[in-house]
Design goal:
disordered N terminus; 37% helix; 673 residues; 2 domains; Rossmann fold; eight-stranded mixed β-sheet
Length: 673
C-alpha cells in the first residue's frame, strides 16, 4: 500500500487563479478520441464475446448438450438468485366468465398468477364443438399498447378457434391491461440490482400460460404451438427453446443473433431480450438450434421498419440451426417465410396464412380437409373494454417486487471488534465486490495526442488504451508546482467541471480529467443504454468497466509519479458510485476519495424508481443484495473518504463510517464538512 496522507481541501484565496477559465474550458473541450471510436469499440467488444455454438457429432451428443444448456440458462439466467423462489409456485388460475365470440367459438376470460401476487389477464378462444384432443396455440403479443386487443392478434386467435384449435391470448407485461409504469421493461433491472432475475416474471408469464393450455381437458400435448410478433417473437423463441412441451414455434420478426445486433443497431432489444450474462451461455442461434427436431417457422419481413429485417437477420439463424435439424433428418422442419407485402413490421394476413399452412401441415393429418386461407373475421374483433379481465388491486409489478426485495438487502454488517477482524472483513469484501462488478486489471498503453501550454499550466491530451479494448480520453493539467494528483470524473463529462478543476489546480494538484466508458467523450452516440445492457449480457458490468478504468488510470499515474498521493474526485451520483467502487478495490494506487452528490444507499435507485435507460451502471446484478454504499465505503477505510454536501439519506445511512475508521486506527469522519 502507498503511504497514506490525510489531505485536506484548502480554499485558496488567491486573487489570480492559476488558470484562466476560458483557456481551461477550451483545453477540456478538445477532441481526443472523437464520436466514432466509442461505438466501434463497444461493438467489437460485445461481438467478440458472444458464445459460439458447440460442435457435436450425433443426435445423442447434441441432446445431452441441449439439455445441459437448457438447465444452465434456466438456473443461471432465468431463475437466478432470489427468483428461484418463484419457480415452483403452483399455477393459480381464476376463470371469470365468458362472452360470445362469433360463429363457432366462445371467449373465456381468465387470469393466472405468474408469480405470487402478479396476475396476468388472458382470453381463451374455445371452439363450441370439441371432440377429443385438439391442437392448442399460445398467442403472445409484442410491443403494442393495445396488448391482447391488438386486432391482428384477435384475428389469428379467431381463425385458430374456427379451425377447431384452442387459442390462448395472453397479455404481456407492460402492454394492454399491464401498461402501468411499474411493468415497464426497463424496470425489470431493479430486480437485477436486488439479486433476483428480472427475466423470471417474463418467463413465468409464458410457462404458466402453457400450464393453463395443457390443463384443458381437450388440449393435445403433442400439438402445442406458440406464436407472436416482435416481442411476441422473442417470447416464442425463448419459451419454445427452453420448454420442450412446445411442439411447434412460429416467431415473427422477433429476434436475431447477438452478433447481428451489435452491427444492426435497431435490433438491440429491451432489457428482457438482453438479460444479464445470457450471451455467455447462449446466443439466439443456440435457442434456434434447440428447437430441433420440433418444427419451426421463422417469419421475417423484408422491409421491416422496426427491427430484424429478413435480409440480414434470418440467414445467420438458419445457417446456425440447419445442421442440428439435419442430425435428426428433419431439415424440412426448419421453415422460413419472408413477407414482402407490406414487408414492414407486421403479423398481417400473409404472415398469418403462413402460420395456418404450417399448423395444417404439422398438426393435422394429410387427409384432413384443412384450408390455410384466412377466414374473414374483421367484424368479430372486440374492443378493449369487451376483452378486459378484472385484476386484483395492488397487482405486483417489477417496481413493487423490487421495493420489497430492496428493504431486505443487504444484511447489516456488525462492526468488527478489532483491527485484525476489520481487515479480514475488508479482504473478503473486496473479493466479493470484485466478483459482483466483474472488475478488470487493465494495462494502460498511453498515447499523447496533443500538448498545449497555458500561462502557469502545462496541458496534455491522452488516449489511454486499456488492454486493447477501450480508449479512454484524458486531459492532464499540471501547474508549475504540484504536490498531489487528482483524477477528476464527472457525470456530465470532463467539460462540465471546468470550475471545479480550476479549484484543484489552485491547490497545486496535477489534474487528470478522464471520461470513462459511457461518459463525456466516451458516451455512445446512439443506443447507449442498449449497449450497456449488451455489455452485461456478454458477461461484464458497465460499473465494473468504469471502476476498472479509474483504477487503471490511477496505477498509470502512480507509476509515472510514484511520490505523489492520488485523489479521485467524482462529481455526480453516478460517477461517485463507480469511483467509490474503484477506491474500494484498489488499496495501492488510490489514496483518497472525494465524492460530490453521492448516493447514501443503493436502495435510493429503487425508491426513486430509476430505470436502466437513465443510469445503466446502477443495475449491477446482485450488488444491493450483498453490498450497499456503507459496506463499499467501509472497504476504503482507513484511507480518507470525503462526502461533499451529503444528502439526508447519506447522513442517515453512512453515520457509522467514522467507527470503521476508529477500528482501523484513524480518527476520520467522511461526513464531516
Amino acid at each position: 500500500m502507498r503511504a497514506l496522507s490525510l489531505l485536506v481541501i484548502v480554499t485558496v484565496a488567491a486573487t489570480t487563479p492559476v488558470c484562466a477559465q476560458d483557456d481551461l474550458s477550451a483545453i477540456l473541450a478538445r477532441e481526443i478520441i472523437g464520436p466514432v471510436l466509442p461505438m466501434a469499440e463497444v461493438q467489437g467488444y460485445c461481438e467478440g464475446r458472444v458464445v459460439e455454438l458447440p460442435e457435436v457429432k450425433d443426435v445423442a451428443e447434441w441432446e445431452a448438450a441441449a439439455q445441459r444448456l437448457r438447465e444452465a440458462v434456466l438456473n443461471q439466467i432465468v431463475f437466478r438468485g432470489r427468483a428461484a423462489a418463484w419457480r415452483n409456485a403452483a399455477t393459480r388460475v381464476e376463470w371469470l366468465g365468458s362472452l360470445d365470440g362469433g360463429p363457432g367459438y366462445r371467449i373465456k376470460k381468465l387470469r393466472f398468477e405468474a408469480l405470487p401476487g402478479m396476475w396476468i389477464p388472458a382470453l381463451l378462444y374455445e371452439p363450441e364443438k370439441l371432440d377429443g384432443k385438439v391442437p392448442a396455440v399460445l398467442n403472445v403479443n409484442g410491443h403494442t399498447s393495445l396488448g391482447k386487443q391488438y386486432p391482428p392478434k384477435q384475428i389469428r386467435c379467431i381463425n385458430q378457434a374456427k379451425r377447431g384449435m384452442l387459442a390462448l391470448n395472453v397479455e404481456w407485461l407492460g402492454m394492454g391491461q399491464l401498461a402501468g409504469s411499474g411493468y415497464s421493461h426497463a424496470r425489470m433491472n431493479q430486480l437485477d440490482l436486488c439479486g433476483a432475475s428480472g427475466l423470471a416474471p417474463f418467463y413465468l408469464n409464458m410457462t404458466r400460460a402453457v400450464d393453463v393450455l395443457l390443463e384443458h381437458p381437450n388440449a393435445d400435448p403433442a400439438r402445442l404451438a406458440v406464436t407472436g410478433l416482435s416481442g411476441g417473437g422473442w417470447q416464442t423463441i425463448v419459451i419454445s427453446a427452453l420448454d420442450t412441451r412446445v411442439k411447434f414455434a412460429n416467431p415473427v420478426a422477433g429476434y436475431s443473433s447477438y452478433r447481428t445486433r451489435a452491427r444492426h443497431l435497431k435490433d438491440l432489444g429491451d432489457s428482457e431480450q438482453t438479460p444479464c450474462d445470457l450471451a455467455t451461455l447462449a446466443d439466439y442461434t443456440h435457442l434456434t438450434a434447440m428447437l430441433a427436431p420440433r418444427p419451426a417457422l421463422l417469419t421475417y419481413n423484408s422491409k421491416d421498419d422496426c427491427c430484424f429485417e429478413s435480409g440480414y437477420a434470418l440467414q445467420p439463424l438458419v445457417d446456425a440451426a440447419r445442421p442440428f435439424f439435419q442430425l435428426y433428418d428433419r431439415a424440412a422442419y426448419l421453415r422460413t417465410h419472408v413477407n414482402d407485402d407490406p414487408g414492414t413490421h407486421n403479423f398481417e394476413k400473409d404472415n398469418r396464412q403462413a402460420l395456418y399452412r404450417a399448423l395444417g401441415d404439422f398438426f393435422f393429418p394429410p387427409d384432413a380437409k384443412f384450408d390455410w386461407q384466412e377466414i374473414p373475421s374483421d367484424d368479430e374483433v372486440k374492443t378493449a373494454d369487451e376483452l378486459a379481465v378484472e385484476l386484483p388491486a395492488n397487482n405486483e409489478d417489477f417496481h413493487s417486487l423490487a421495493l420489497t426485495l430492496s428493504r431486505q438487502s443487504p444484511e447489516a454488517v456488525t462492526l468488527p471488534r478489532t483491527e485484525q477482524d476489520a481487515i479480514a472483513w475488508q479482504r473478503a469484501g473486496r473479493q466479493r465486490l470484485s466478483e459482483i462488478v466483474r472488475a478488470k486489471t487493465y494495462t494502460v498503453s498511453a498515447t499523447e495526442m496533443q500538448a498545449a501550454t497555458m500561462p502557469a499550466v502545462e496541458a496534455s491530451c491522452w488516449k489511454l488504451l486499456m488492454d486493447g479494448d477501450w480508449s479512454v480520453p484524458a486531459v492532464e493539467l499540471a501547474p508549475a508546482a504540484t504536490r498531489q494528483i487528482t483524477i477528476v470524473v464527472a457525470d456530465g463529462g470532463r467539460q462540465s467541471v471546468a470550475p471545479q478543476i480550476a479549484q484543484w489546480l489552485d491547490q497545486e494538484a496535477r489534474v487528470v480529467a478522464m471520461d470513462p466508458f459511457y461518459f463525456g467523450e466516451s458516451k455512445l452516440a446512439e443506443k447507449d443504454y442498449l449497449f450497456a445492457l449488451l455489455v452485461a449480457a456478454v458477461g461484464d458490468r458497465p460499473v465494473g468497466i468504469q471502476a476498472s478504468q479509474v483504477t487503471a488510470t490511477a496505477r498509470w499515474l502512480a507509476s509515472r509519479y510514484p511520490d505523489a498521493p492520488i485523489t479521485v474526485a467524482a462529481y455526480g451520483p453516478r460517477s461517485s458510485l463507480f469511483c467509490l467502487i474503484a477506491a474500494a478495490l484498489d488499496q495501492d494506487a488510490i489514496d483518497r476519495v472525494v465524492l460530490h452528490d453521492a448516493l447514501g444507499s443503493l436502495k435510493e435507485v429503487v425508491e426513486k424508481d430509476l430505470t436502466v435507460t437513465q443510469t445503466p451502471e446502477y443495475f449491477c446484478f446482485g450488488l444491493l443484495r450483498e453490498l450497499d454504499i456503507e459496506q463499499i465505503a467501509a472497504l476504503v477505510a482507513p484511507r480518507p473518504l470525503q462526502l461533499v454536501q451529503p444528502n439526508d439519506r447519506a447522513r442517515a445511512e453512512l453515520k457509522g463510517l467514522a467507527a470503521w475508521y476508529r477500528t482501523l486506527g484513524r480518527e476520520h469522519d467522511p461526513l464531516a464538512e
